[in-house]
Specification:
The protein contains 10 helices and 10 strands. By secondary structure, the chain is α/β, with parallel strands linked by helices. The longest helix has 20 residues, at 121-140.
Length: 254
């Protein structure tokens, strides 16, 4: 049996007297595209934040590529091969699209202070690698015509594509995508879904995707995990989950 790229074991997160996530268990296999869905307030983003080290779980463990990463800070997790995007676009507004994408490769590398200042040795190699990765993903995701523009000058749809390119530039083994289609129109959502499928296939990166757009999710993922009130209520193929009585009740009421 192969080791899952991600294993979430009995994960719980409590904020004061509120239990936002309760004993959640699931895995993501290598090269798998998985959707994490649920009604508003179900705990999806809290799960993402606990996986990526942005909040500490109250109990439970997160294993990434077989190693326990529970409680590690986000930068350490990124260096081990995980990346993420956010509900609100978080590009560096003062940098170009190309420079933003290069930051993904920098974030996955390590470089001493002296080498960074002098731009020699390891820093020079990292800079060359970052440029190569950025140019590759900018071309593959159709951003070449915009590479020199300030990132915040792009329309929202292309800003989200640039965020995905930046995440891919770190050569992750797992990418967490938090509401990547938020604010996009139907045409942009369709293009984004195609890009995600293409990028996952080419990079060999597993994807864990949160989004409220069911057409996007069901058209991209191979498996769906459903949470409601912080608990997992279903885990299966899109067709299985769509017919699950617990899922129907969670979305539509009894």
């Amino acid at each position: 049996m192969t080791t899952p790229v991600l294993a979430v074991a009995n994960l719980s997160v409590r904020f004061g007297g509120l239990r936002a996530v309760s004993d959640v268990n699931f895995t993501v296999e290598e090269n798998e595209i998985v959707g994490l869905i649920g009604p508003n307030g179900a705990g999806k983003t809290t799960i993402f934040n606990a996986i990526f080290g942005m909040i500490g779980p109250t109990s439970g463990h997160v294993l990434f590529r077989g190693r326990d990463i529970t409680g590690l800070p986000p930068e350490r997790i990124a260096q081990r091969g995980m990346s993420r995007t956010f509900q609100n676009v978080r590009l560096f507004g003062e940098l170009s699209v190309r420079e933003n994408v290069m930051m993904g490769a920098y974030g996955a590398g390590r470089c001493g202070i002296i080498a960074s200042i002098a731009r020699v040795g390891r820093h020079r190699r990292l800079e060359q690698l970052a440029a190569e990765r950025a140019d590759h993903w900018i071309a593959r995701l159709g951003l070449s015509a915009h590479a020199g523009m300030l990132a915040t000058a792009l329309p929202l749809g292309l800003q989200r594509v640039a965020e995905v390119a930046r995440a891919l530039a770190s050569e992750p083994r797992l990418m967490l995508l938090d509401e990547p289609a938020a604010g996009l129109n139907e045409i942009e959502k369709g293009k984004l879904g195609e890009l995600l499928s293409t990028a996952a296939a080419e990079s060999g990166c597993a994807l864990l995707l949160v989004d409220h757009d069911m057409q996007l999710v069901m058209g991209v993922v191979g498996r769906v995990i459903v949470v409601d009130f912080g608990r997992k209520i279903a885990d299966g193929s899109p067709a299985e989950v769509a017919c699950d009585p617990a899922v129907i009740e969670a979305y539509l009421g009894a």
